[in-house]
Every structure is written in structure tokens, then in C-alpha cells.
């Protein structure tokens, strides 16, 4: 009877863990997909609102205000770090903030000129540019398997552009902004690794300073692109529905950072990457259904090629990091515990998945 009880207890614990992981992954998928559709609604040509800089500025200000709220009421939100404002730290995070501003700007400009169904494919060169920058900037060697995966992704990317062009669903601006977005996403990962030590490896502290810097950097950009006069006189600025949608985008911007970290913590960086790839596939299918698009089999094939290449790269990356870990291990094998090995491997996975 005791064994049966213990067994039942274990099964119940495992069941609860699986349910929790499933819940976290589901939250990530919902938030990640929702923020794309919300931003597309704000930036769509059907809206009389041509101000992508203002949209991203508002979301940065919203996130910063949420961080201020958590900081003010740390007695309740005990998990939030005790951030002491420092101009020196603000200056150290500025290079990352510049790259971050460029990334979110090109993300929204890309989303403005391409459909949600093609959005993932338009930005699919992120893996390719990440490998290129890793080799050029960080001077790290790249394995043959990673290069092969990049070639597969590139083939799928150009095949997708060809098919999207036949249906008239893509523009030159959409392609350019997609490539620039991919480059900035890769640079953002590299600069995040460099800047995190300046904020004691705290993601929330980094979000605090990064969004503060970005909020200031977007102000001259809105003037340069002539958005501030436009946003003052545009019809939507006085409509409740518009501000509800803007606020929803701000909430989603805060949640995406939270659920991303939660998914990595509940699973692993590798599982997070796989989840993101699968989410992109579902996002594409939902977009085609929601916008009543008709796509050819060749268009779908190009998406699957990119998804396959991305998934394969994630696996190759894991194998390369495990190999690197084994090569860099100093302690004899009999002195290493499974826990320390897994912990170090997880650290390596974390460092390459940001």
C-alpha cells in the first residue's frame, strides 16, 4: 500500500509539472502571436495611422512605467530587483539601446509592408546573420553543420520571396526592412551578452535601463520621420478604440519579456527555441486563415524549408555547445557530478540563446 501511495504521489507530481510546462508554453504562444497581430492592426494600411516610431515609443514608455511601478511597490513584488538609478549604468547600456531601437523599428516597418503570414519568413535570416556576426565580431568558429543549416534557411527564404512576389504580397521595402531586422536581432543578442554584466545579469534591470534609453532615443526619430505632427492631428488619437489597442500592445510588450523568461526557466533555452519555431509555424497558418489568403504549395514548401533549417540549426547548436563544454572541461571526470555538468551545459545554452 505504501509503494502504491508513493507511486501515486510521484505520478501526481510529474503530472503537475507537465501541466505547468504546458501552461507556460501556451502563454508564450498566445502572447507572442497576439503581439504580432496587435502591432499589425496598428500599422496596417487600413488604419489611418502611419506612425510606427510612435507605436514602438509608446510600448517602450509603457514597459518603463511598469518597471517603475514594480520598483515603487517592491514590498509586494519582492521578486523585482532593487534598482538604484545610475547615470553610469544608463551610459553602459546605451549601445544596446541603440541596437534595440533599430531592431524594433525595423521589426515594425517590416510588419507594416508585409503580411503576418510572411512576417516570419521575411525575418528568417536572423539565424544566418547571427552566424555571420558570431564569426565576424566574436571571432568564434562556425561548424559545418551550422553553415549547412544556414544554406537551407537561405534557400527557403529566397524561394518564399519568389512565391510571395508572384502573389503581389511583398514589396522591396518589406524585403529590405526584413533583412535589416534580422541583422539587428542578431546584433541585439550579441550586445545583450556584453551589457548584462553591467546590470548584475538582471534581465529586469536591463529592461528598466534599456526602455528608458529607448524612450529618449525615439523622440528625435519621431521628429525626423515627421510622426509627431501626424500623431497629433490623426483621427485615431482621439478615439478610445485606438488607445485601447495601443495599451494592449504595451501590455503585450511587457508580457512577452516575462513569458519568454518563464518558458526558458520552466524548460530550457533549447526547448524555448524549438517552441518559438513551432509557434512561428502556427502563427503563419493562423494568419493565412484570418486574412483569407490563398497560398500555393510552393509557398508552403518554402516555409517548411525555413522551419526545418531553423529546427536543425537549433539541434546542431546544442551538439556544438555540448562538444565545446566537454573540450573546455578541466576537472577529471570522476570529480564532476551530473548536476555540475548539466548546470554548466545549461549556462552555455543560456549564453547562446539570448
TrEMBL record:
Gene Ontology cellular-component terms for this entry are: membrane
Q: Any idea which UniProt keywords this protein has?
A: Membrane, Transmembrane, Transmembrane helix
Checking Pfam families in the record gives: TPT
Predominant localisation class: membrane
Show the coiled coil region(s): none
Q: Does the keyword Transmembrane apply?
A: yes
Membrane topology label: Multi-pass membrane protein
Question: Which InterPro entries does the UniProt entry name for this protein?
Answer: Sugar_P_trans_dom (IPR004853), TPT_transporter (IPR050186)
- Where does the record say this protein resides? Membrane
What PROSITE patterns does UniProt report for this protein, alphabetically? Answer: PROKAR_LIPOPROTEIN
For this protein, the parts annotated as crossing the membrane are 20-39, 51-73, 94-122, 142-160, 172-191, 211-230, 242-264
Q: Does the keyword RNA-binding apply?
A: no
Q: Where is this region: Disordered?
A: 328-354
Which residue range or ranges hold the Sugar phosphate transporter domain? 21-313
Q: What is this protein called?
A: GDP-fucose transporter 1
Amino acid at each position: 500500500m505504501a509503494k502504491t501511495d508513493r507511486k501515486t504521489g510521484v505520478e501526481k507530481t510529474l503530472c503537475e509539472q507537465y501541466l505547468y510546462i504546458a501552461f507556460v508554453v501556451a502563454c508564450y504562444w498566445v502572447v507572442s502571436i497576439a503581439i504580432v497581430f496587435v502591432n499589425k492592426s496598428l500599422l496596417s494600411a487600413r488604419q489611418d495611422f502611419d506612425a510606427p516610431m510612435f507605436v514602438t515609443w509608446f510600448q517602450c514608455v509603457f514597459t518603463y512605467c511598469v518597471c517603475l511601478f514594480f520598483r515603487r511597490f517592491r514590498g509586494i513584488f519582492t521578486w523585482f530587483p532593487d534598482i538604484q538609478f545610475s547615470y553610469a549604468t544608463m551610459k553602459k547600456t546605451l549601445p544596446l539601446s541603440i541596437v534595440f531601437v533599430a531592431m524594433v523599428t525595423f521589426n515594425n516597418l517590416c510588419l507594416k509592408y508585409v503580411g503576418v503570414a510572411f512576417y516570419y519568413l521575411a525575418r528568417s535570416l536572423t539565424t544566418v546573420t547571427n552566424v555571420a556576426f558570431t564569426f565576424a565580431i566574436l571571432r568564434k568558429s562556425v561548424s559545418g553543420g551550422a553553415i549547412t543549416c544556414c544554406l537551407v534557411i537561405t534557400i527557403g527564404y529566397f524561394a518564399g520571396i519568389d512565391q510571395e512576389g508572384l502573389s503581389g504580397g511583398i514589396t522591396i521595402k518589406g524585403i529590405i526592412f526584413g533583412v535589416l531586422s534580422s541583422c539587428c536581432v542578431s546584433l541585439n543578442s550579441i550586445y545583450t551578452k556584453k551589457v548584462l554584466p553591467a546590470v548584475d545579469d538582471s534581465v529586469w534591470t536591463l529592461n528598466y535601463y534599456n526602455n528608458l534609453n529607448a524612450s529618449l532615443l525615439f523622440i528625435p526619430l519621431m521628429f525626423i520621420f515627421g510622426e509627431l505632427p501626424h500623431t497629433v492631428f490623426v483621427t485615431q488619437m482621439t478615439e478610445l478604440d485606438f488607445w485601447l489597442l495601443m495599451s494592449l500592445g504595451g501590455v503585450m510588450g511587457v508580457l512577452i519579456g516575462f513569458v519568454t523568461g518563464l518558458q526558458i526557466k520552466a524548460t530550457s533555452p533549447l526547448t524555448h527555441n524549438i517552441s518559438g519555431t513551432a509557434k512561428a509555424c502556427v502563427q503563419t497558418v493562423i494568419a493565412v486563415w484570418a486574412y483569407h489568403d490563398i497560398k500555393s504549395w510552393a509557398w508552403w514548401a518554402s516555409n517548411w524549408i525555413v522551419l526545418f533549417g531553423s529546427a536543425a540549426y537549433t539541434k546542431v547548436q546544442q551538439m556544438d555547445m555540448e562538444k565545446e563544454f566537454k573540450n573546455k572541461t578541466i576537472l577529471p571526470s570522476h570529480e564532476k557530478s551530473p548536476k555540475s555538468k548539466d548546470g554548466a551545459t545549461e549556462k552555455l545554452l543560456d549564453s547562446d540563446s539570448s
